[in-house]
Write a structure and sequence with these properties.
- The structure is a single chain.
- The relative contact order is 0.08.
- The protein has a five-stranded mixed sheet with strand order 5-6-9-8-7. Strands 1-2 form a two-stranded antiparallel sheet.
- By secondary structure, the protein is of the alpha+beta class.
- It has 19 helices and eleven strands.
- Among the domains are: about 155-235, Flavocytochrome B2, Chain A, domain 1; about 265-575, no CATH class.
- Strand 3 and strand 4 form a beta hairpin.
């Protein structure tokens, strides 16, 4: 087949029009009075930016694809998230294009140069292909098609964290994915997936997704390559043996059926909530709104709301039903109509907490640092050395019990509406409004508006107090630091602790007394935590990791002790640092 140089010669500059669109005008090269019409697809759909694809299998057109010359390659390279570079056996080689043609980008405005998204340059090694961005060619279909794979080093991947370079890459099972654009469309929220940019996210991906095989197919368009053969499967900061042992443990857990929910258990939890909610209204309806019925009704309403918090937490973690879709829809409906909050708002915050617990600037549960509290000795000392004082942190253990729940109530009420309007979650917003209308119609005719306001907001404050102490007893006393990119087990164990099991503790905390097991297996139904706990203890003992468990009262006391220690560390650094 004659090359471009043979057709045009080298005497004159070749006018080139690439990627002309339209089913009747599609051409690849037009120049010097010679035109070459490319083979069209049977479906008559446009080929990928003018490049010929395999007949009967049209390539999806993607604006922003680019041609570039590969080192020793005879293939067209399409810089797209799929990272599959196709070339037809009859196409000219990019290495034979004139210099002024290479790098041209075809789009509606014609020729544009220098704006294509370029991949890292190929690096040569002894074998001729570099580990940084290598290419492995595979012949298929009788040698008519060449598929190329690119290889990357951890150094290149870690630079794509969104901070050093704007791109965001992550690794799952040694495959490299470009999430630079996808993170904004990620169903679980942009931040939770971005927290793993530049890192291996294999265990986190497995932990968060109920049906991994189903979700994996959505990763295919994001695939850009894989780790080079000489690269380890995870970063050097992660314990390789611990990672392998935990994956074996997870496989054992799956075989034991511990990730399968008991629908009857959760139905009884829901029935309990409905009985408590009805009992609160019946108390006011039958006995009136005098002092004793008032506080009995508040206690019942608060208990119903807190137990609903634990149930919606289960739904958010996809642990109530066997399908993700059913969990999501029931979560959305119950969260809106029984709690008066949007499900997506909760998931957006809570998944970040699970992805990077106690990691400052990644765990939203630490957002009260430093405006209200100085959390963790390291962060508190850092704050003191910077001579920053927003609150009297050395007394924070004295005002925690009052300030933390009081601030949580208005924050939740304001943020749920702000989130719904900003994200245009109109269904959630409608459910929230229906909840508020329902509660007002149930109670205002019985007790009047003023009495109802006292009843409702007192219940909300007590609910916030309950939630704050239970949720923070497992985390505030533990290590609080920046993200150190440790393995999944180490990340969770350094930030969580357990509370001793008992029927009351299980009910009072919604089984969050098994915080370690919950963080290691987020989608595990809570009624199975006690079954997997001995296996987790054995894993920790084998690798010398502390498995913390304490009484409920000790866990509450440790919150105050930890706040006092970090407050003293801030004071010492502030005054003498």
């Amino acid at each position: 087949m004659p090359t471009l140089g043979a057709v045009t010669g080298q005497q004159k500059k070749v006018p080139l029009w690439l990627f002309q669109k339209g089913s009747k005008r599609q051409r690849f090269l037009v120049g010097c009075g010679t035109s070459r019409r490319l083979r069209r697809h049977r479906s008559r759909r446009p080929v990928a930016n003018g490049l010929p694809g395999e007949r009967g299998k049209p390539i999806r057109s993607r604006r922003g694809a680019s041609l570039r010359e590969g080192a020793g390659q005879s293939a067209f390279m399409i810089s797209s998230p799929s990272s599959e570079f196709l070339a037809d056996s009859g196409a000219v080689r990019t290495s034979e294009f004139p210099q002024e043609i290479r790098g041209c980008r075809g789009d509606r405005s014609g020729q544009r140069e220098g704006r294509e998204r370029m991949a890292p340059p190929l690096q040569e090694t002894a074998s001729g292909v570099g580990s940084g961005a290598g290419v492995e060619e595979k012949r298929a279909n009788g040698g008519g098609e060449v598929r190329s794979r690119r290889f990357f080093t951890w150094e290149e991947i870690q630079q794509r964290s969104g901070r050093i370079k704007p791109e965001r890459w992550l690794v799952i099972d040694r495959k490299v994915y470009d999430i630079s654009s996808f993170h904004r469309r990620h169903p679980g929220g942009s931040r939770v997936i971005s927290h793993y940019a530049g890192q291996d996210a294999t265990d986190a991906f497995t932990a968060f997704h109920l049906h991994r095989d189903y979700v994996s197919k959505f990763l295919n368009p994001l695939l850009i390559g894989e780790l080079a053969p000489d690269q380890p499967s995870s970063e050097s900061s992660k314990n390789k043996l611990l990672v392998e042992d935990f994956r074996e443990l997870r496989s054992t857990v799956e075989k034991m059926g511990l990730l399968k929910p008991n629908t009857l258990f959760f139905f009884l939890m829901f029935l309990q909530i409905m009985v408590l909610d009805a009992a609160a209204w019946f108390t006011i309806w039958y006995f009136g709104s005098s002092l004793v019925p008032f506080f009995v009704g508040v206690a019942l309403f608060t208990t119903a709301q807190n137990q609903m918090s634990w149930l919606q937490h289960d739904l958010g973690h996809l642990s109530v039903f066997s399908t993700s879709t059913l969990n999501h829809w029931v979560h959305k409906i119950l969260m809106g109509t029984v709690k008066g909050m949007p499900a997506q708002w909760w998931n957006n915050l809570h998944f970040q907490h699970h992805a990077k617990p106690n990691c400052f600037r990644k765990d939203p549960d630490l957002n009260m640092h430093p405006l209200v509290f100085a959390l963790g000795k390291k962060l508190a000392t850092e704050l003191g050395l910077q001579k920053k004082k927003y609150m009297p942190y050395n007394h924070q253990h004295k005002y925690f019990w009052l300030v933390a729940p009081a601030l949580l109530v208005p924050f939740f009420q304001w943020s749920v509406f702000y989130f719904s309007f900003k994200r245009k979650e109109w269904v959630d917003l409608a459910l929230i409004i229906s909840y508020n209308i329902r509660v007002c119609l149930m109670y205002i005719p019985l007790m009047g508006f003023n009495c109802f306001m006292a009843y409702y907001w007192l219940s909300r404050y007590l609910e916030s107090t309950w939630f704050t102490w239970v949720s923070q007893m497992n985390h505030i006393p533990m290590n609080i630091d920046y993200d150190r990119n440790m393995d999944w087990v180490s990340t969770q164990l350094q930030a969580t602790c357990n509370v001793d099991q008992s029927p009351f503790n299980d009910w009072f905390t919604g089984h969050l007394n098994f915080q370690i097991e919950h963080h290691l297996f987020p989608t595990m139904p809570r009624h199975n935590y006690w079954k997997v706990a001995p296996l987790v203890k054995s894993l920790c003992a084998k690798h010398g990791i502390d498995y913390h468990s304490k009484s409920l009262l000790q866990a509450f006391a440790d919150i105050l002790h930890s706040l006092k220690d970090s407050g003293d560390a801030w004071r010492e650094a502030y005054l003498y640092g």
